[in-house]
Structure prediction request, 251 residues.
Amino acid sequence: MIPMSKKLIAGNWKMNGTLADLLEVSAIAAAAEDAKADAVLCPPATLIDRAVSATRGTRLRIGAQDCHANTSGAHTGDISAEMLADLGAAYVILGHSERRVDHGETSRTVAAKALAARRAGLNAIICVGETEGERAGGTTLAVVEEQLRTSIPEGASAANTTVAYEPVWAIGSGRVPTNEEIAEVHAALRAALSSRFGSEATGIRLLYGGSVKPSNAGSIFSIAGVDGALVGGASLKASDFAAILSAASGT
Ligand code: PGA
Prediction:
């Protein structure tokens, strides 16, 4: 496997953040200027426009947390990939386990959204991950490989796709798989990407997500095959985000 040039740290603010938090966005952008890793911040949709303005000319890219599969139409409350691109977003998280559970999203829905993201020029951060029961039952690799196969449409490349391995039980729980467990899943996902997309898959970054914090980031980034992180809780504070960025810069 050819090593990725730079790690990617993507912050997922989930349903957190109001206008007052734009100061935190600017502080994260300032931290990203000095980092050797790339940085993306996905605030709630209500802050994307302001966050893009606040970070213009910096290295911090702004992303969204979901999009609709269609360009426009009668879909009350939804936001299209084109609308996000229109605001200056560059990424969109798709298939996060909270959306799969809260909104009944299937991998087929995620694949349709990924095509929409590509159509609009966004890079889709596609999430996969096993539940605690699936890990206990020994089906982790089968589950994540199936999610990967059905959530990512044909024609994926580094320009349009990023993958995040997020064990559902590790999200927001403070619990993290062992380094060996993360390495095993990343190796399986990398092999699946390579066999399906060939050389086009080489640059697709494979992030780990689930309770990444300043205290464990260095260890996680030392695992072979981990190209960065998708960070929830610890992305809310610029000081934590900066510490994770600097841990990623050193590896
Ligand atoms: P967490 O969330 O870092 O708070 O565990 C990660 C995620 O849901 O992307």
Summary: The domain at 8-249 is CATH 3.20.20.70 (TIM Barrel).
